[in-house]
Write a structure and sequence with these properties.
The complex is a heterodimer.
Chain A: E1 2-3, E2 11-12, H1 45-49, H2 59-90, H3 105-109, H4 112-127, H5 133-152, E3 166-167, E4 181-185, H6 186-190, E5 191-202, E6 205-208, H7 214-217, H8 235-247, E7 252-254, H9 260-263, E8 278-280, H10 284-295, E9 299-304, E10 307-311, E11 317-329, E12 334-340, E13 346-352, H11 354-357, H12 363-378, E14 382-391, H13 393-408, H14 413-424, E15 429-440, H15 444-453, E16 457-461, H16 466-475, E17 484-488, H17 490-495, H18 500-517, E18 537-542, H19 543-550, H20 558-570, E19 574-578, H21 582-593, E20 601-605, H22 611-616, E21 619-623, H23 630-634, E22 637-639, H24 644-682, H25 695-705, H26 707-716, H27 722-727, H28 743-767, H29 782-804, H30 810-832, H31 846-851, H32 854-877, H33 885-891, H34 896-902
Helix pairs in contact in A: 2-4, 2-24, 5-24, 5-26, 8-10, 13-14, 15-24, 18-20, 24-26, 24-28, 24-29, 26-30, 28-29, 28-32, 29-30, 29-32
Chain B: H1 2-9, H2 30-57, E1 65-72, H3 79-83, H4 87-90, H5 95-98, H6 121-124, E2 130-137, E3 140-143, H7 154-160, H8 171-174, H9 204-210, E4 218-225, E5 238-244, E6 255-261, H10 271-304
Antiparallel strand pairs in B: 1-4, 1-6, 2-3, 2-5
Helix pairs in contact in B: 2-10
Classes of the chains: A alpha/beta, B alpha+beta.
GO biological process, one term (chain B): phospholipid translocation
Organism (chain B): Danionella cerebrum
Transmembrane segments (chain B): 27-53, 275-296
């Protein structure tokens, strides 16, 4: 950029990425700036990363639709069977139109096929109750009211932000119990994004500040006491190191009091009020280092007119003029500053990752420090090494001009700068190393462990560097000591001499062989985490490589790369994807979501960069973190802390799934055994569409008689109590892969419905072989028949639910017994009055008369018992299978385990 | 103050919202199920034996004897047939005497277009055979008195069905301008020539017929034998039954039959219930034994380990 000012020589300045203001930037320290907008509209990063919000549907709903198709088929086939049989039956002489039931002229004139069609439709109407329409209402109610339990949960309340969980959709409650893949953001989700200076090592001697946080050890920090471990390094070295920390950064100081809200998310808890000084930096690590130095007595006071001011231990102000900042970049992985002291010395301070510093310093210095660095790294700290170098005036002049030239170069600017930097940062001497901790969220490791125990695969998707991410993974126990890491990054790709594409395929094949083919066969159906010592794999991939995998070169077989990659990932307990762009995160989620078996995915994140991934996954969870509300607003559920995820999934998710799955199955079952007797009755009434039950019963069955108990069940059931669910994460696997809504349980429920329907109908049918059921010899008619069947039906269906209920609160009691009582009351009422608006008083005193017959009582009792008998028997005889029988015993409480305990 | 603000944000800490309502968690263990099955089984066997014996002791000739007629392959439960009636007529609403409801069609109007009362297929197909039972004593026929009272439901006779209000003290006048159902030999007000109070819609036989049978093979109560020498049952001897045959059944392959039976507390003779109770009862007992064996075996094998 050329700057022209009147009466001055045009100056040349370089423009680079550091001059770009990103969205959300706020202006400070100056009144105004001039800018040019570079990207607008759809080209902005926001727009490019935006994903359309699509309707999310849960797996349960898909199952419902499948079941619905089956029942629709049953309905249609029933209607077809009845219609066909009707016409076969009518073709017999005298059956079609007996003298006692003649047709009207209009009916006689109707065209035969039209009659058939209307008959078909009448049968459809007659049997339509088999389609549980009211289930949709109940499911919606269950979801709506059920979601309140998440909102209400006190465990999700975070006293810090004074908020609890937030439910943005109630459609996905049960999906929380089905999660197979968890995609988590790192910064702000796994970690607090709050760096803490832990220790440093100067010249091979360790300096550790014990009580980093007062609550850590119990005693409070009063004046930032520094505990130094003996022996110490020389004072000179020590101060040099601290000066280096104070100078080598790009931190800005924000004076206390001014615009506090903006900065306070970056300043941590400072020990003393007068030191309430805000530091602002692009990287929280730098803030941590500056603060660390402050604790050791060196305070960075700020940058004014290119002069950095430091207050040293003797409370003197030292001033350094900042000559150059050699910015950090991910390839060099270090940064430097060149400063000039008052005495005119020119110094270069450099800090960076160990791997990039060590080759540039004297080897004998390295040996003393390497040990500490490695130990710190394995403890999950982010380590940096600090080195310095004294520049002579000539050296500096060379550097000065070199840098200036490189910055102004229009072509290959970066390469030239890089070369210049590399040239400068050589021959330094190592002073020490630092260890900074990115503090994990509370209970992050426990949460992750529980989720893994529950059979979930955890993918960490982060924009961070690989090393940082890796250390976080270790800290969260996602990677363990024994985990074998499979790396697929730019670095591993460049190791080989061959081309990147070939190397990629080679590595993929190799990893595939190791992780997939040589791995012991995974038990089908159940996702098992290898418990007994067998090798665990962790997989690491970075953004660039992922792009390569997703969009393989030219002629290569695109699906091969993907499927290899997916298979490797599926066999790894943890996958770490670093250097991800927000849209890439969504891409990964999408890939897993659409992979074989279409597993249920969950994304959790706190920042705007996680939005696309939250929207993409089946369930999106936002953390009410410090990075604004974008994620929360776009999420399905929002929780204050990561640790709440455990209860959300293991307890709420599990319960919701069991509840709704049972609700769905129960609804189909109860409508099947409701309508089956009506279907069977057609065989005994000349296929004339005579309803078995009174119209009032037909309507009220689903609305009043049987809806409340199942609603109460689906809201309150805890087949296993919440504490046990939280303690035994493996219980979550019991319901994995939609276990309760697969075809087998569905078949079981359907068969049960058919069995009971047959029982109801034929039990009463045999009783009615002599319809004189009263002790005065009077006979019962068809409505009595229907009422007896219906009574047995209502009682059986309700008692079946009572058998399934493991958690009887007073609400369950009142719903179940209340429904039955209501049925009896309603029947008396309905049959007790001549209703003026009814054309026929079919049920007049039918119910009361039925109850006056001992036979009717006896048949009702035996039919209820007989219908429930197989259920009871099955419950008692069901044997817990598999190695986890002790836990599963809790799932099937009527098992031998309890037999044993009882007797 | 601050606490209040906080508590408004914080979710209610009640047992309900925290899903910690006190709950009863029943467990159907073997300790309950095995004895339970045994008790239920034994009880059922007891009831079953009682039912079965009762059913067996129901004799034809011990009093009071009930006289049923039965029809088979006769579909009183046709849907069209079932709706072919006008309840408003039957509850005595004379408005509907002039214009019967459409559901009665084609039994609403006769050929002179006079409305039929009672209209509809059910009324029209009223069973109109009559029976006379004689005991033959020394070659002479002695009429067995048949009691036509109390064969229909009490509520039907007293509440549900109503005759039209008498016009000039005569039921026949109330039916003026209407026609009798085609199949009927006499109009409704002359159904029972011997008993004035058994006419119109409140004829017991008519009410019995109007209560539609559930299945195509059914029986309906015709008379009770409660009077005179036969109150305690029909003594052994020769009897003769005179059938006034009016009712067509052959053209739809139907059959008629006559059943004499007495009833017990469980109603008419029906072996089904007794047998069902015996079977289910024994099933329960057998199952409890099986469970006990399985359980014992399992327990032992568990102890070995």
């Amino acid at each position: 950029m050329h700057i022209y000012k009147p009466e001055q020589e045009p100056a040349v300045r370089s423009l680079g990425p550091e001059n770009l203001l990103l969205k959300g930037a706020t202006l400070k320290n100056t009144k105004k700036i001039y800018g040019v907008s570079v990207y607008t509209g759809m080209e902005t990063k926001m727009a490019l990363n935006y994903q359309g919000k699509s309707q999310k549907r849960s797996a349960v709903e898909k199952s419902i639709n499948a079941f619905l198709c089956v029942y629709l088929c049953i309905l249609i086939s029933k209607a077809v069977v009845c219609t066909t049989l009707k016409y076969v039956w009518q073709s017999k002489e005298g059956q079609d139109e007996p003298w006692y039931n003649q047709k009207t002229q209009k009916e006689k004139d109707t065209f035969m096929y039209l009659k058939m069609f209307t008959d078909f439709l009448s049968f459809m109407v007659l049997f339509n109750f088999i389609i549980p329409v009211s289930m949709y209402v109940t499911v919606e109610m269950q979801k709506f009211f059920g979601s309140f339990f998440i909102k209400w949960d006190n465990d999700f309340f975070d006293p810090e932000i004074k908020e609890g969980a937030l439910v943005n959709t109630s459609d996905l409650n049960e999906e929380l119990g089905q999660v197979e893949y968890v995609f988590t953001d790192k910064t702000g989700t796994l970690t607090q994004n709050n760096m803490e200076f832990i220790e440093c090592c100067i010249d091979g001697f360790q300096y550790r500040q014990r009580d980093v946080r007062s609550e850590l050890d119990g005693f409070t920090v009063t004046d930032g006491p520094v505990h130094k471990l003996q022996p110490k390094a020389g004072v000179e070295k020590e101060e040099l190191f601290l000066r280096a920390l104070c100078l080598c950064h790009t931190v800005q100081v924000k004076e206390a009091g001014s615009e506090e809200t903006l900065g306070d998310r970056l300043d941590g808890m400072l020990p003393k009020p007068e030191e309430e000084r805000g530091f602002i930096a692009s990287s929280p690590d730098e803030v941590a280092l500056v603060k660390g130095a402050m604790k050791y007595g060196f305070t960075f006071l700020g940058l004014e007119n290119k002069k950095m001011k430091i207050r040293n231990r003797q409370n003197d102000i030292e001033e350094y003029s900042l000559l150059h900042v050699l910015n950090f970049d991910p390839v060099r992985r270090r940064m430097s500053v060149i400063v000039q002291t008052r005495s005119g010395e020119t110094l270069l301070f450099c800090k960076g990752a160990d791997s990039s510093i060590f080759p540039r310093v004297r080897p004998e210095e390295v040996d003393r420090i390497r040990l500490h660095v490695e130990r710190n790294a394995t403890e999950g700290y982010r380590t940096l090494c600090v080195a310095y170098k004294q520049l002579t005036a000539e050296e500096y002049m060379v550097a000065e001009t070199g840098l200036q030239d490189a910055r102004l170069a229009l072509q290959d600017r970066e390469e030239k700068l890089m070369a210049m930097y590399n040239q400068l940062e050589t021959g330094m001497s190592l002073i020490g190393a630092t260890a900074v901790e990115d503090r994990l969220q509370e209970e992050a490791a426990e949460t992750m462990e529980a989720l893994q125990g529950a059979g979930m695969k955890i993918w960490v998707l982060t924009g961070d560097k690989m090393e940082t991410a890796k250390s976080t993974c270790y800290a969260c126990r996602l990677f363990q000591r024994g985990t074998e890491l499979l790396e697929l990054t730019v670095r591993t790709l460049e190791d080989g001499r061959s081309k990147r594409e070939e190397r990629l395929l080679e590595l993929l094949r190799d990893y595939h062989k190791r992780a997939v083919q040589d791995a012991p066969p995974v038990r089908t159906g159940v996702v098992t985490r290898s418990w007994c010592g067998s090798q665990e794999y962790g997989f690491i991939i970075d953004g660039a490589t992922l792009t390569l995998v997703m969009n393989p070169p030219r002629d290569a077989d695109a699906s091969l790369y993907r499927s290899l990659f997916l298979q490797i990932c599926q066999n790894c307990t943890t996958v770490l994807c670093c250097r991800m762009a927000p849209l890439q995160k969504a891409q990964i989620v999408k890939m897993v979501k659409n992979s074989k078996g279409s597993p249920i995915t969950l994304s959790i994140g706190d920042g705007a960069n996680d939005v696309s991934m939250i929207l993409e996954a089946h369930v999106g969870i936002g953390i009410k973190g410090k990075e604004g509300r974008q994620a929360v607003r776009n999420s399905d559920y929002a929780i204050p802390k990561l640790k709440h995820l455990k209860k959300l999934l293991l307890a709420h998710g599990h319960l919701y799934y069991v509840r709704i799955a049972h609700l769905v199955q129960y609804f189909f079952y109860k409508n099947l055994c409701f309508i089956l007797p009506q279907f069977l009755y057609q065989f005994f009434c000349g296929y004339s569409q005579q309803p078995l039950y009174d119209a009032a019963y037909l309507t009220m069955y689903n609305i009043c008689f049987t809806s409340l108990p199942i609603l109460a069940y689906s809201l309150l059931e805890q087949h296993i109590c919440i504490e046990i669910l939280l303690d035994n994460a493996t219980l979550y696997r019991e319901i994995a892969k939609n276990a309760m809504l697969r075809w087998r349980p569905f078949l079981y429920w359907t068969l049960l419905g058919i069995f009971q329907g047959l029982m109801f109908f034929f039990g009463v049918r045999f009783l009615f072989s002599n319809p004189a059921l009263q002790d005065n010899g009077q006979v019962f008619g068809n409505w009595s028949y229907g009422t007896i069947v219906f009574t047995v039906l209502v009682f059986t269906v309700t008692l079946k639910l009572a058998l399934d209920t493991r958690h009887w609160t007073w609400l369950n009691h009142s719903a179940i017994w209340g429904s039955l009582a209501f049925y009896v009351f309603f029947s008396f009422f309905w049959g007790g009055i001549i209703w003026p608006f009814l054309k026929q008083q079919r049920l007049y005193f039918v119910f009361a008369n039925m109850l006056s017959s001992v036979s009717a009582w006896l048949v009702i009792i035996i039919l209820i018992l007989l219908s429930l008998l197989p259920e009871i028997l099955l419950m008692v005889l069901r044997k817990p299978r598999g190695p986890l029988s002790r836990q599963t015993a809790a799932v099937t409480p009527l098992s031998y385990k309890h037999l044993k305990e009882r007797c | 103050m601050k606490n209040e603000g906080e508590s408004s944000e914080r979710p209610d800490n009640t047992a309900f919202t925290q899903q910690r309502l006190p709950a009863w968690q029943p467990i159907l263990s073997a300790g309950i199920v095995i004895p339970g099955f045994l008790i239920i089984g034994l009880a059922f066997i007891g009831i079953g034996i009682g039912l079965f014996l009762t059913s067996q002791t129901i004799q034809v000739l011990e009093g009071p004897v009930f006289f049923y007629y039965g029809l088979s392959n006769y579909y009183q439960n046709f849907r069209k047939y079932g709706v072919s009636t006008d309840y408003y007529q039957l509850s005595g609403d004379t408005q509907y005497f002039k214009s019967p409801q459409d559901s009665c069609s084609p039994y609403s109007y006769d050929s002179q277009n006079k409305p039929i009362v009672p209209c509809g297929a059910i009324a029209n197909s009223f069973f109109n055979d009559t029976f006379e039972l004689y005991q033959i004593i020394n070659g002479t026929k002695k009429l067995v008195p048949l009691d036509g009272k109390g064969i229909a439901w009490w509520t039907d006779y007293n509440i549900k069905y109503r005759n039209p209000t008498l016009v000039n003290g005569s039921l026949a006048n109330a039916f003026d301008g209407t026609s009798k159902p085609l199949n009927w030999p006499r109009p409704a007000y002359e159904l029972d020539l011997t008993d004035q109070n058994n006419n119109g819609f409140l004829n017991q036989d008519f009410l019995v017929w109007m209560r539609r049978a559930a299945l195509p093979q059914f029986r309906k109560l015709y008379r009770r034998i409660t009077e005179g020498d036969y109150a305690a049952g029909l003594p052994a001897g020769n009897y003769s039954l005179t059938v006034h045959y009016n009712y067509q059944v052959l053209n739809f392959d139907g059959q008629k039959k006559i059943i004499f039976s007495n009833v017990s507390w469980m109603g008419g003779k029906n072996d089904f219930l007794g047998i069902a109770y015996l079977v289910v009862g024994s099933l329960c007992v057998v199952m409890s034994v099986v469970m006990l064996i399985v359980y014992a075996k399992f327990k032992f094998s568990e102890d070995d380990v």
